[in-house]
Input
Amino acid sequence: MSRSVPTIGTLAVAAVALGWCWIGSAAPASAQAIAAIVNGDPITTSDVDEQMKFLRIIKKPASRADALEDLVADRIKLREANKYGIDASDSDLTQTLNRVASAAKMQPQALANALQAAKGNTDIIRQHLRAVAAWNNYVRNRNKALNVSEEEITAALAKSTSAGKEAADYTLQQVVFVVPSGASAGVLEGRMREAQALRSRFQDCASGLPLARSLPDVGIKPAVTRNASALSAKTRETLDQTPKGRLTAPERSASGIEMIAVCGRDDEADRTTVRDNIQADLITERLSKIADRMYQDLRKTAVVEKH
Output
């Protein structure tokens, strides 16, 4: 028994809200001719016409053959998902519509307006979105254990952030353990140990800077903001490897032992979100390849009669 088609009345660009309508209640007989039968499920020439219209709007190849093959894929995918009790919710349809609009470089509302202007058949569009969403749910359900390695995420994260590093702003404060001129190697080593001890206790600038001020012969320079473009590549790398609110490794300078507190970085707040998004994108990319293979296997065994 076929499952009912979820309404898209709750979509941001819902058919009801925008006044999408069925194109005529009685299409001409020629428009209702059978174009293909997929596992016993007919596709009419009218269905193909509507799919061609939809493909043109979303800027994809829109020949009659392209449209028919899309509809064949929809029938095969939806049948397979439904066989395992998997369908698409209204929320799934919303997300799918948004992805379709994004791929076409359109806002969802603009896509809806274009479909309305073209007098697109709401039911055909809804059925296509349902097939895509249900198939995606099915593929994810069959590949729940799929994941990507930390190495892959790190590599993708480095690639995605490298272009934006030149525009990053850092809020920095220099912490200096003063060492008298001509101090012995033993004094230098002792001050280096003190600096390392502070670094290990320094968890954020709000508490760490007062802690540093309480130590003898420690100077803290005023906070400065520096754009990444004004820093050397080595300095940028050091700052990017230092978590926000922590100190860089101590280094010898003419003034003594110096460290830099990274008190602000304009891209830091988004790092966790960016990482999560990259992980999700990598999984989606891998699932897409798996989905293609799964569909090709189903396509080979499907009974498709094109007329």
Q: What stands out?
A: The chain has a mean pLDDT of 84.
